[in-house]
Automatic annotation (TrEMBL):
GO terms for biological process: DNA repair; iron-sulfur cluster assembly; protein maturation. PANTHER family: DNA REPAIR/TRANSCRIPTION PROTEIN MET18/MMS19, MMS19 NUCLEOTIDE EXCISION REPAIR PROTEIN HOMOLOG. Keywords: DNA damage, DNA repair, Nucleus. One of its GO terms (cellular component) is cytosolic [4Fe-4S] assembly targeting complex. Gene3D superfamilies: Leucine-rich Repeat Variant. SUPFAM superfamilies: ARM repeat. This is MMS19 nucleotide excision repair protein.
Length: 614
């Protein structure tokens, strides 16, 4: 056995025993052996990492794992040894930027995170300057900075390195702005800062992230997004930049005291009051996006009922305007649900909605439009999740359900039901929202039976509206909620697979996800519909009529049938299915071809069972 191999066995044994407090004489002997072979093993592993052929991926990964293990053993290596390991990892990341070496690069990036944890000072002195030198101020096309930026950012997982990483990223961003770097690079640097705050280890005071991060990092960026940084500063008011900056601010602010939050609110209140006044102004648009994340961070007491009503009115004007850009409109809609859920007290709800014309009766009145209908769904979503205004939600949902029969705007309402239960990280307890534990069950009870019943008598012109709405609701519900209604829902789910319009591909995809759950959890509910289910699934595998996502989902469902259905229910369709799958094996998408191979194998196994029986 070679020295590195024996050393690695000892290393693994030492790492397993590292967490135990009792150390036997044998353990001390193993530790002594580790130190005896340390130099030879270090040299051998470094040679393997640096000099081994690039094609020897497994060998190099083994060596990297060994080096990482050595770093984890306390006092085994000197700072100079750790520095050499860091250098080998940084060389891989900088010099081997290719898909063929992605596994080795990923291992090297993980290795640097380990060195940052166990030797933060050495890592900061060795790796950070090396990476910074490789990050340009204005990259040329194809410069391949992404891997370096990823490795640099992941060093933020160590608290002692976090501040240095974030400060260097901020400085690099300002340099890139001054050099008029392309917007893709600007977004990449902003995303790196967001990653650091989302997954890194920022400093805390009394268990709360330090407020100074907002003053030093987020606020200067926010001022640039809102046009408050002076005329010489390059704007960051585009949608993506503002959204990322808003998210960074949210992470820092949502755990702060009400006093500090009120300070921030007072500083930006004038900027946020510009909603709906000038839809063409870039900073006004940015204010809608930024305020979504800041208002999400603020506690419920931050806004008075009057301020909340004024904000709701401003958001309604923005969301209801046909000239509002889609990204800005989406932010206004999400914030509408937020304000209704968190800032408008139930006792003031009716007055606030009526005074701002955001009550559903006004929004769905004779002057209704696609924009007002979508806004109505945002209001209802905020109330549903809150669960404290049942009187209004029941009435509002009934009005929205009645709209499905409208031949002109019923399709807009159907799409609204797709969004009403869709997850939104803004509407969360972490953002101080009121989240009822029963809102999904209540929504199901108030909508699905009514949709099922109305769809039976619906004219062909509006039948699709009911199917789209039903699929949109079911896609977000756990199986336990729909289980007792499967007898009614199965037929409607099958009918949803008959939707031919290309705009309904996402509906078919959601329907197939629901059917996959039913097949897995309670296949017996589908036994009597085996023929229509199989024919519809096969039709959904056809290209180009269906998107790759739909084709793949249909194949997954088909793959389950031979094992989940009774054998006598699927055997009659074996030849038909296998024959139709031949076309899927030549599909233009690899993921679809892979799923088709699995599916065909599952159905061919039925032939094997026949042979075994004979």
């Amino acid at each position: 056995m070679s020295v590195p191999s024996r050393f690695c066995k000892l290393l693994l044994a030492s790492l397993k025993k590292k967490s135990t407090s009792h150390r036997s004489g044998a353990d001390r002997a193993e530790e002594s052996a580790l130190r005896d072979w340390r130099n030879e093993a270090l040299e051998a592993m470094l040679r393997a990492v640096v000099n081994a052929p690039k094609s020897e991926v497994s060998f190099r990964l083994f060596a990297i794992a060994g080096l990482i293990g050595m770093v984890k053993i306390p006092k085994l290596l000197s700072d100079g040894d750790v520095s050499r390991i860091i250098e080998s990892f940084t060389d891989i990341i900088i010099q081997e930027r290719s898909a063929a070496n992605s596994e080795v690069e990923a291992a090297a990036i993980s290795g640097l995170a380990v060195t940052a944890h166990h030797s933060p000072i050495v890592t900061s002195e060795k790796a950070l300057p090396t990476f910074l030198a490789e990050l340009p101020d204005n990259p040329s096309p194809g410069s391949g900075y992404e891997r370096v930026l990823e490795a640099f950012t992941k060093l933020s997982t160590e608290t002692q390195v976090f501040d240095t990483v974030v400060l260097r990223l901020k400085n690099k961003l300002q340099a890139a702005l001054q050099q008029e770097a392309n917007i893709t690079y600007i977004h990449a640097l902003l995303m790196a800062i967001l990653f650091a705050f989302s997954y890194g280890s920022p400093g805390t005071e009394e268990g709360i992230i330090k407020f100074s991060y907002f003053s030093d990092i987020a606020k200067p960026l926010l001022d640039q997004a809102l046009g408050l940084a002076g005329s010489d500063a390059r704007s960051l008011s585009d949608h993506t930049s503002t959204d990322i900056i808003g998210r960074i601010s949210n992470i820092i602010l949502k755990s702060q005291t009400t006093h500090l939050q009120n300070q921030v609110l007072a500083e930006y209140e004038s900027s946020f009051s510009s909603f709906g006044k000038d839809a063409s102004d870039a900073y006004s648009k940015a204010a809608v996006i930024a305020s979504l994340h800041l208002n999400a961070a603020f506690q419920r007491e931050a806004l008075t009922p009057e301020s909340a009503t004024n904000l709701l009115g401003a958001l309604a004007r923005t969301a209801n305007s046909q000239s509002t850009l889609p990204d800005v409109q989406l932010s206004a809609l999400r914030q509408t649900a937020l304000v209704v859920n968190k800032f408008v007290p139930p006792s003031n709800l009716e007055q606030s909605l009526i005074s701002t014309s955001t009550d559903v009766a006004s929004l769905l009145g004779q002057a209704r439009s696609a924009e007002s209908i979508i806004l109505a769904f945002s209001v209802v979503k905020g109330l549903l999740i809150q669960g404290k205004s049942n009187k209004y939600t029941t009435s509002y949902l009934q009005s929205l359900l009645e709209l499905l029969s409208d031949a002109t705007l019923g399709s807009v309402a159907a799409r609204g039901f797709v969004t009403i239960l869709a997850p939104d990280d803004i509407l969360s307890k972490e953002n101080h929202c009121i989240v009822s534990g029963l809102y999904k069950q209540k929504t199901f009870n108030q909508t699905v039976p009514a949709i099922s019943e109305s769809s039976k008598s619906a004219s062909p012109a509006v039948k699709a509206n009911y199917l789209v709405a039903l699929s949109g609701i079911l896609r977000w519900l756990p199986y336990s909620i729909i289980e007792n209604s499967l007898a009614t829902l199965v037929l409607l789910l099958l009918q949803s697979l008959d939707l031919q319009d290309q705009t309904h591909q996402d509906v078919k995809s959601a329907t197939l996800a629901s059917l996959e759950t039913v097949i897995t959890q309670n296949a017996s509910a589908l036994f009597e519909h085996a023929s229509s289910l199989i024919s519809r699934l096969l039709a959904s595998t056809a290209s180009p009529d269906n998107t790759p996502q739909v084709r793949k989902a249909a194949l997954r469902c088909l793959t389950l049938l031979p094992t989940q259905f009774k054998r006598e229910a699927v055997v009659p369709y074996r030849r038909q299915v296998v024959k139709r799958l031949m076309g899927c094996l030549d599909d233009g998408k690899r993921a679809v071809r892979t799923e088709a191979v699995r599916c065909r194998t599952a159905w061919l196994s039925l032939d094997q069972e026949d042979s075994d029986e004979e």
